[in-house]
Amino acid sequence: MGDRVRAAEESTEEKPAAPVIVRPQPATSNRTAADALSGPSADPARRADAAGLGGPGGNRAVAQLLSPAPGDPAIDWIESLPAHIKQQIDNFGAAQEKAADAGNQKLADARTRNRHTFMDTMRWAMGDDDTVIQQHFQAIASIDVGGGEELWAHSSTRERLAAVKAELEAQGIPMPQTTVGLGMRGDHLNRGNKGRTWFTHAVGFAVDWRAYQTPRITDDKLITLFDVVTGGRPDMKTSVEGDTRIDLEIKMGQGKADPAEAKKLLDSVDAEYTRLTQASETFKTDLPKETLDRLGEVEQARFAVGTARRALARLKARKKPKAATADEIAAGEKAITDAQANYDKLVAAIVPDLPKLFEPWTKKIDERIAVIDREFADAGVDEELLTSDYGLKDREAKARQVRKDEAALAKAKIKDEAKLAQLHQRALDLDEDLAKRRQYRTETKTALGAKKVQALIDEKFKLITLRGLKEGLISNANGFVFRTKLATDDPAIDQLLGLMPENRGGFFTPDAAGGEAQAQAGQFSGEHGYGLAFIKSMVSHGFEAGMAWRGGSDPMHFELAEGRKFLKTGGKSPLGSTP
User: Fold this and answer.
1) Which residue, of 118, 225, 310, 347, has the greatest Cβ tally within 10 A?
2) Cα-Cα-Cα-Cα dihedral of 187, 191, 196, 202, to 10°?
3) Is a pLDDT exceeding 80 seen at residue 3?
């Protein structure tokens, strides 16, 4: 299965561009536009290695590594930031923040370390000018999105969102409501292998909308299934890709784009929006009614369990007019037991029937598998034995680990001779298999040429994905068909089919039309607004749309293109600069 990871190795950072809308020149002052929406007005490498020292070095080593040193940046200014931002930097909850302020030394020390680590991460992501970092986070503020909710974002993002909101409202369309903007999620404390552009949420450049109805799709099995059923991918194919699109979006947001290029981009978004919305609906209705009814019955039963649990929680919390009686609590508990038993019964009954229920799809999958099988047969190549570079490295790692385990066991005071012999034989078998695969790869390359061998390896990856897809459909492996709750990333098939009562389903499901009264009143809307006009306006005002990312669609996600480039270049392309 190691071959499957090749896709991740070969994935690019490219993210699709958005549509360009003909609009007035930007306001003279960016701050004015932002205010209109939000209301009045030590060595970085030392901490980058901290996570790796945690295990072998122990907590003391990590604490010493993260403790303030002569070269550490100033962090006093962080204390003056709004509590919402401080808590994200500190990775604290409100109670922890309060305890640290009240004199809890352990938490106070942790807060200091986290703030230094935050600065190290931001120096890496935004450049070594601490003044730029300080001013950036001081420019992050909230937008009142109604209902007592707030959206936190950088002034550059708020300014553009204000322009999008005004443009939509002029068309009688409300700005869709969201609260998902600034979000560090602790990533700044352990960035691992994340690239700089991962941190667009962490610095206030990114915003997400409608996560459950426009989920992030990165699982190759789901991407393949969407193609099998609808004939296309679940992401947008725009007129330009990668950095070319980013640069065009930056110019569009600044009002400096070539009108013809902007129009091409917007037209491609328009066409792809139509394709995706239609394909998403096709996906939801493609299976026979019997299959949808059976799966829907399971989802109704699952929902009933959750309903019963929520009812019991409300019962236990009741104080007025009087607390729940023991009999009422017992009845509520019985309702949960009965609902769970019904759900378990339906699941047990449907799993054996999944192969039949999904037969219309598995037949199409089998046809694709057969095509690839014939390609290997025609080339005279053993598909299982032909191994990619990643597959070879994966097997090398497994062999090394077995030998390491063998060596450790050999040094033990009390030796398990049988286990030792088993590990030794396992290591020999892995070495033999690895040598065999290397030799076969070399011989095949000599016979067919490197280009043909690589093409076959690419086909093998597709074959593995197709087989995994079929297995998921006919066995519900890893909750592929149904799960216990909604997901925003790579959801279960039942969610994508719209069978979970909490959600409308689909790979890409925009809001229903409407909301004119909210638009007229300048209100944000939780039910209306996310649609074609919104997406095109976001792109034309300089936002990169995640739905156009070729490595995996993320329709909920939008990020300021200028901000993305600012991070990607480590601060060398400042906000306001034109590519």
Assistant:
1) 225
2) 10
3) no
Q: What share of the chain is helix, strand, coil (3-state, %, to 5)?
A: 65, 5, 30
Instruction: Among 135, 157, 181, identify where a domain stops.
Output: 135
Same domain, yes or no, for 208 and 164? yes
Q: Give me the pLDDT at residue 550, please.
A: 84
235 token code pair? 């992401």
Question: Which residue from 511, 510, 507 is spatially nearest to 553, judged by alpha carbons?
Answer: 507
pLDDT over 80 at 26, yes or no: no
Judge if 167 and 183 occupy the same domain: yes
Q: Both 263 and 363 in a single domain?
A: no
pLDDT at 49: 40
What pLDDT is attached to residue 71? Answer: 63
Average pLDDT, the chain: 89
For 41-66, write each residue's pLDDT tens digit: 334 333 434 334 343 344 444 444 44
Note whether 371 and 445 are same-domain residues.
Answer: yes
Residues 191, 332, single domain; the answer is: no
- The Cα 421–Cα 71 span in angstroms is 53
pLDDT of residue 414: 85
Judgement on whether residues 15 and 161 belong to the same structural domain of the protein? yes
| Mean pLDDT computed over 316-341 | 96
197 and 90, same domain (yes or no): no
On whether both 129 and 263 belong to a single domain, the answer is no
Bridge partners of residue 140, in order along the sequence: 154
Contact 143, 153 (CB under 8 A): yes
- CB contact at 8 A, 19 and 248: no
Burial class (CB in 10 A: 0-12, 13-18, 19+), 415: exposed
In DSSP terms, which residues pair with 144 in a beta bridge? 150
State which residues form the domain around 322.
Answer: 289-357
| Other beta carbons less than 10 A from residue 530's beta carbon | 26
Kindly report the pTM of this predicted structure. 0.83
In a domain, 491, yes or no: no
